[in-house]
Amino acid sequence: MTSQIAITVIVPVKNEEKLLPACLQRLDRFSEVIVIDSNSTDATREIARKAGAEVHNFEWNGTFPKKRNWALLNLSLKNDWVLFLDADELVDEAFCNAAEQAVRSDQHNGYWLDYTNYFLGKPLRHGIPQRKLALFRIGSGLYEKIDEEQWSNLDMEVHEHPIIEGSIGEIDARIDHKDDRGILRFVDRHRDYAVWEANRVRSIAPKLGGAKSGLTDRQKFKYKSLRRWWFPYAYFLGQYIWKLGILDGHAGLQYAWYKFWYFSTIRLILIEGDREAREQV
Prior knowledge:
With 281 residues, this protein is α/β, with parallel strands linked by helices. The chain is 39% helix and 23% strand. Strands 1, 2, 3, 4, 5, 6, 7, 8 and 11 form a 9-stranded mixed β-sheet that branches. Strands 9-10 form a two-stranded antiparallel ribbon. Helix 5 packs across helix 8 and helix 7 runs antiparallel to helix 8. The chain is globular and about 65 Å long.
């Protein structure tokens, strides 16, 4: 028998009975799998336990920490490395092999992961790539601490990034991001994300010019640009034309259009908030 991969996989969930089984079926090679649940009302917990995962419940009180940081700060994990996966993310043998080699090499403290997005049931082979820093050495850092002041009901770090000390590498083997929850769930979720992002822009505005803001250059550009009329159009053109999303056919066009809608929604929320603030003066 081959030894299992010394990585703890943590899967944060809420009402994911449809997608969770396929995710967990791919994780047999990892030595520890933990599911962090947010009071699911479906069969999510039963499915996780039946698959052999350790299950913990999480109730967010609206302050730090949110779900991923809570797990890092409160659970006794058996491995030195943690991999965060969502229920709609599927690993394969190539990724498992690459991850095992990466943590054995001891060369970096974290790794960027690449994803293949599926939209309307189709894989998007082109467009702006999705990357997340979701595999890192435990103790090397946490996700960004943001004082949210009840911006939304999002109890998990979605747009917050891990702040990792030390060298960061990249794993080329891709993870499939298969979101099969339906278009209404997609729209509802991105509405919540838009509200969160708009509030994040307001809170971070005073820090954008500072050298010690803790933001990456990409974050600074994004937060400075979200109020600009041209940003949604630029993202659409980048997604659909420059990064060849047009080659993904109908699904590629619709995905680019929804990203345009998403960034337009953030901008309109910001404009509306600015107007309300002026009227109160």
